[in-house]
Design goal:
The chain is built from five helices and three strands; from the N terminus they run ααββααβα. By secondary structure, the protein is mainly alpha-helical. It has one domain. The protein has a three-stranded antiparallel beta sheet. Helix 2 runs parallel beside helix 4, helix 3 packs antiparallel against helix 4 and helix 4 runs antiparallel to helix 5. The longest helix is centred in the C-terminal third of the chain and has 40 residues. It starts with a helix and ends with a helix.
């Protein structure tokens, strides 16, 4: 049991930080900006980035609006699957552990909004891109880390296989 709890440590640490930061920033936006209001701390930043109070009933980056119940269920299933799968990861699979921790934190951050508000609070607006939040960014970065980790693992496995083949070929000729 102690080993299983230890395996969740990285998940709980990373996810807790993401959830806390996500919920804190969303609360700041809801308390300080009216719906649709924009805050730009420096005028020169205006074309590139701004804070805007918005909400989203779809998924990340405003896709699939007004399907909140479906996303409550899907996000809940994904979060549970991460909890089930996480302790089965190998000790050295840090890319996947970090990626899943970020995805779990993001999923839970947005689930809190969905269950308490009925929608997700978004506020980060960069260029002409859809408005998003810390949880959305966490899920997206987590996916990027997962892809990077899979690429690295594949490269490492191929190098190990080539090394083993070279050793085997050397053993055959000697």
């Amino acid at each position: 049991m102690k080993k299983k709890l230890h395996s969740y440590l990285i998940l709980l640490l990373i996810a807790s930080i993401i959830i806390a930061l996500d919920q804190w920033t969303k609360a700041l936006v809801r308390e300080n900006l009216a719906m649709g209001e924009i805050w730009i701390p420096w005028a020169w930043l205006s074309p590139y980035a701004r804070v805007v109070h918005w909400y989203n009933t779809g998924v990340a980056f405003g896709m699939f609006q007004d399907h909140g119940m479906i996303f409550k269920v899907l996000n809940s299933i994904i979060a549970v699957l991460i909890l089930i799968f996480f302790p089965r990861l190998s000790e050295g699979d840090w890319f996947l552990k970090i990626a899943l921790s970020m995805q779990f934190g993001g999923a839970v951050g947005n689930l809190i909004d969905r269950f308490t508000l009925g929608h997700v609070t978004d506020f980060i607006s960069i260029g002409n891109f859809a408005v998003f939040n810390i949880a959305d960014a966490s899920v997206t970065i987590g996916v990027g880390i997962m892809i990077l980790g899979l690429w690295y693992q594949e490269k490492h496995d191929k190098a190990q296989q080539a090394l083993a083949e070279n050793k085997h070929a050397g053993d055959q000729s000697g």
